[in-house]
Amino acid sequence: MGLKNKNIGLIGTGKMGSSLIRGILKSNIVDSSNVYASDIYNQSLENLQNELGINVSNDNKQTVMNSDIIILAVKPQVIRKVIAGFKDEMTEDKLVISIAAGVPISEIEDELNSGSKLIRVMPNIAATVGESSSAICPGGNTTNEDVENALEIFKTVGTARVVSEYLMDAFTGVSGSGPAYIFPVIEAMADGAVYEGLDRKNALTFAAQTVLGAAKLVLETDSHPAELKDMVTSPGGTTIRGFHELEEHGIRSAFMDAVIESSKRSRELGK
C-alpha cells in the first residue's frame, strides 16, 4: 500500500528528527500536510513549520492521534516518560518507530500498550546529510507492510537494512561509531597534503572527496574493496608505496579493533 495515504508523526525535532522530516519531504513519499511533529522547543517547531509547511504542536498526544506512524526521536533517558504521556492515545493499528539509542525492543514494548506494533531503528549522524546507514529491527507484532514502510522512511536519509536485534551492537561498532573513525582519516590525509604544499582548504576538500568517492565505488560497483584497491595499485608505483606504510602501522588491525571494542562497549551499556 505504501505511505502515500499515511500520516507520519515525529516526537522530537532535534538533528535526527528534523533530518528525517526533510528526507521524507524531499523524497515525496508523503505531502507536508501528512507530517506532524511535536517538541518542547517552540523555536524548532516554528522553524520547521515555516520552512516545510508541516503540522506542529507542543502536545505529543495530538501528534499520536493524528498519525499512523509515530517516530520517537527522543533521548533514551526520557523515552519512558514520553511514552507514558501519549500511551492512552495509542491504538493497535498505529506503528511506533523508536530511534532511541541503546533501548531494546523489549523495554519499549513494556512501556507501550499490549499488542502495540514497534520497530527499533538505529540511524547514524550522516542522516543529517542524507547518507545515513540505518539498521531496522522489527518487534513481534509488526507486519511485512510495517517493515517496508520503515525501510521506505529511512531510505530517504541514506541506506536501510533489516537486521536481527542481537546484531545491533555490531552495527553500532561499524556504523554508529564508524563516522568518528573516518574523520581523523580525512584530517590526517589533508595534513599530509598540507605537508607536501597544498593549502588547507583544498587539502581537506580533496581528502574528503577521495573518501566519498572510494565509498561510492564500493557501493555502486558491488566490487570487493580488495579488488578496487588492486585496480589503483600499480607495480612499483605511488599507491603501493603508501599502502606499505599503512600496513607497517597496522591500519587493518587498528580499524578492526576499533569496531570490535565499540561493539563490546555497546553490549556493556545495554546491560
Automatic annotation (TrEMBL):
Keyword Nucleotide-binding applies: no
GO biological process: L-proline biosynthetic process
One cellular component (GO) term of this entry: cytoplasm
Annotated keywords: Amino-acid biosynthesis, Cytoplasm, NADP, Oxidoreductase, Proline biosynthesis
Enzyme class: oxidoreductase
UniProt main location, coarse: cytoplasm
Pfam families: F420_oxidored (PF03807), P5CR_dimer (PF14748)
Domain Pyrroline-5-carboxylate reductase dimerisation, chain residue ranges per copy: 165-269
Alphabetized GO MF terms: pyrroline-5-carboxylate reductase activity
Subcellular locations according to the entry: Cytoplasm
Keyword Plastid on entry: no
E.C. code: 1.5.1.2
Positions with a binding annotation for NADP(+): I11, G12, T13, G14, K15, M16, A73, V74, K75, P76
Domain Pyrroline-5-carboxylate reductase catalytic N-terminal: start-end pairs: 8-102
Family: Belongs to the pyrroline-5-carboxylate reductase family.
Function text: Catalyzes the reduction of 1-pyrroline-5-carboxylate (PCA) to L-proline.
Protein name: Pyrroline-5-carboxylate reductase
Provenance organism: Methanohalobium evestigatum (strain ATCC BAA-1072 / DSM 3721 / NBRC 107634 / OCM 161 / Z-7303)
Taxonomic lineage from the root: Archaea, Methanobacteriati, Methanobacteriota, Stenosarchaea group, Methanomicrobia
